[in-house]
Amino acid sequence: MATLRSEVNNQMNPDMQIESCLLAADASQLTKRLADRTGFILCSSFPDAELDARSADNYSEDNRLFLYILHKAAPGELTYEEELLLYAKLQEIMQAVKKIIISTKADCNLFQFSGKIRTEWEYNQFGGYNGLSIGLNVGDYD
User: Fold this and answer.
1) pLDDT above 50: residue 108
2) How sure is the predictor about 98, in pLDDT bands with cuts at 50, 70 and 90?
3) How far apart are CA 23 and CA 36, in angstroms?
């Protein structure tokens, strides 16, 4: 995640830098870890895994991974226009995240994912954070 954060930040304006990264086992732990963090935050849950052991020569495991770009904004804290601007920034940051993931698929440097990337909007999640999430399947082969 630190590599992804660094690559995204290289593309963003100074007011749109990802300030921190967090990794958690589930939503409850992520809420605790976020606490009162400010700025744009890249978060992820530990991926769920499904092992395919049909071939003893080549095990494969599909991991469902969720990445979040979050920013704390309590309901009513922002005007309508400020909220729209915040979501525009969050969307631009998430676009950079997705472009990096897609571009590294061929290089096998960061992730080796299969299938689609699903993007969802997040509102008032994890103790008052807004943002975007993506879900993707990441392959692991032995």
Assistant:
1) no
2) very high
3) 16
- What angle, rounded to 10 degrees, do the helices at 2-11 and 80-107 form? 120
Model pTM? 0.84
The 8 Å CB, 24+ separation contacts for 106-113 are 110/3, 110/4, 111/65, 111/136, 111/138, 112/138, 112/139, 112/140, 112/141, 113/65, 113/137, 113/138, 113/139
pLDDT(33) > 90: yes
Which pair of tokens denotes residue 54? 């049909």
Q: Are 105 and 112 in contact (CB under 8 A)?
A: yes
**Cβ density class 98-136: b for 16+ within 10 Å, e for less:** bebbeebeeeeebbebeeeeeeeebeebbebbbbbbbeb
- Calpha distance 58→69 (Å, rounded): 34
| Size of the chain, expressed as the number of residues it contains | 142
pLDDT digits (tens, 9 = 90+) for 66-75: 999 999 987 7
